[in-house]
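Supplementary Methods, section 5.1.

A reviewer requested that the exact input to the structure prediction be made available. We therefore reproduce it here, unchanged from the version used in the analyses.
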Amino acid sequence: MQYRLKSQPDFLAGGGLMGEKIRRHGWSSTPIGDVETWPHSLRTAVSMMLHSKFPTFMVWGPELTAFYNDAYRPMLGSKPEALGRPFREIWSEAWDIMGPIAEKALTGEASYFEDLPITLERKGYPEQTWWTFSYSPVHDENGDVAGVLCIVHETTAKVLSEQRLEFLVRLSDRLRGLNEPIEVITAAQQMLGEHLAVSRVGFGEVEETARYFTTERNWTDGTVAPQIGTHDLTAFGPEIHGALKRGETLVVHNAAEDPRTNSPEHLAAFAALEFSSVVTVSLIKRGRMVAAIYVHNRMPRFWTASEVKLVEDVAERIWDALERARAETALRASEDRLRLAIDAGRMAVWEHKTATDRITVSPELNRMLGYPVDTELDLADLRTRYYPGDRERLSAAAMAALKKGERFFEVEYRYYRVDGSLRWLLMRAEMLLGPDGFPTRTIGVLLDITDRKAAEEALIEREAELMAALEAGSLAIFDFDHVEGRMNPSPRLSELYGYPPDHVLTLADIRARYHPDDVTQILNKRDREQEDASFRSFEWTLRLMMPDGEIRWVNGRGEYVRDANDRIVRSRGVVMDITERKRWEEHQQLLIHELNHRVKNTLATVQSIASQTLRNAGTMQEARSAMEARLLALSRAHDVLTRENWEGAGLIEIVREAMAPYRHERERRIHIEGPDVRLSPRMALAIAMALQELATNAVKYGALSNETGEVRIAWSVSDGSDRRLHLTWSETNGPAVEVPKRRGFGTRLIERSLAQDLHGKASIDFAPAGIVCTVDAPVA
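The structure derived from this sequence is encoded token-by-token as follows.
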């Protein structure tokens, strides 16, 4: 059967901006030569690169001449145009890393790197970057490696974000154990300065006018002197001072070049303070500037956005830690004063005689109840001043003691003073009993505990607020007494370990939830930490096995309390359910692995198509046409799978997409019949490629090459446990069919590759009346 060669397609068409740049580039002056002389392998590789949505870079030939697509262009930054230049010349500053990887690919071995650190100069300064990429060899027509294809993704932002978060976690852990404000500031300054490798870090507070900034202590790396004391912020000029008062971060990369700071006065001040670049973050609280942190560097330095964000985050954490430390200090002082007042307060002594119902009082009792010190108290008046119900509580306490055979009792109650104020009083009394067992006299003391009650109520409120915060953050607290072996958990902790909220957890209860595979590791880690006397803080992440088989992840942080001999007496901390976070991490890894798998499979399929097509084509034009048709078929099948999230595809849609180029709305020559069946991605791709080969052959030589021929694609699925797909391609009314003298790539793809991919059988019958292809395969 004779057919005419089609004109050579424009492989640069649809290649975006870089496609046009490649078209206009003067290639005759490069080792690559004019575009018209390019081999088919180079054209195909360039076309695939240009149409990729991933940033893709390719080098070709002995000098590794550079090509790249639109998605890759932003990664060059401000570098000169790299198209057509040698790879080594473009990335000379990183050639010690990239060169060996490229040489390895030229030997035919692919490479893959994840978050690889590389220092680049693409923005006018050395920049630390991170990259995830793969280098793959590209073969020419002779099967030799002629080039290298690099699919790349910059992960600098992700890595810097992870580093910043990790540092902030360490900082929070460090500050959490400090109680004095100056200790908080000193520790934070040191950690930030060492992390950023700068010359000086200082934190200080600003008085109410937002003009004077005071810092008590600096951190320096030893190359500059500390700058402590009070400083006038207006010395920086109204522009900078106004920005700081508004909470705008000041970033100066080079004071000599920044128009805000390059005046002689400013430069003299900077020289006196021994720095050339600075980041200053002001903190705005309650509507005004209250504090600031500055980071100085002796030499000019380009501050990255990530570094600036880190300084801003550290400033907030320092302020939060200071607020906490000051609140705790104030609370301790208040509690100390209350305790001192209670301990040093005078006790009011009194005596009551039962027979006469008279009370003997002291001046202190009169003052406590609000009477003049020399007043003789009237019991009838006193009894009217009890808070409703509290006199009965006092009598009940005395009667309960008598019933138990005791003479002592103690009770708290509320009482209205003469001035109308309500006070809490604590009565401690001893009853002297007569022969009948009833008291004849009662002697006791009275203490005003109003302040203590207020403190207790405030503590209860704070504990309630703490519990609400813990609940809101899904946190549970624990306190384990190592001496008595007693656990004091919160209800939330019991729930986290799969027990009722009112269940008092024991160590045995907790260990019963450890995942069996982790028990040894958990106990070994615990033993190592507890035996190390210097080990104070701890953190662990555990897998728990719930009774219903559910896996739950929890993270715990806390501290060991040791006595003078370093034996652990108590451990306490918080526990958080991180199951969802773990699931997202696992899901993210799954997506990455799945993406890598799909890319590798697709490249392998394309490589196989290219190799088989070039090996079996009679001419380059024939190879080109066959290659493009097969790649388009693969692309259409990928489109279907992509719409279905690569979870599978319907057979009807696969068949329709495969046959769409060969159907005409005014003709009814292609007949499709069969139920819709969900196919796996592998099975869908295999059938799509087979239909493409059959349709191409029908157009060239078979039923679709004349005006009367018809094609019928019919299938069915057998029922039962072993579900199987039976698909038939049959041609009628076409030219007489002759058995080919040799099996082409299409026939072998159907009979061998298709059968292998489907784990079934596939055969082609070259019947004189028309080709018949049958497929029999299991349906997963």
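Confidence is low (pLDDT under 50) at residues 1-7. These observations are discussed further in the main text.
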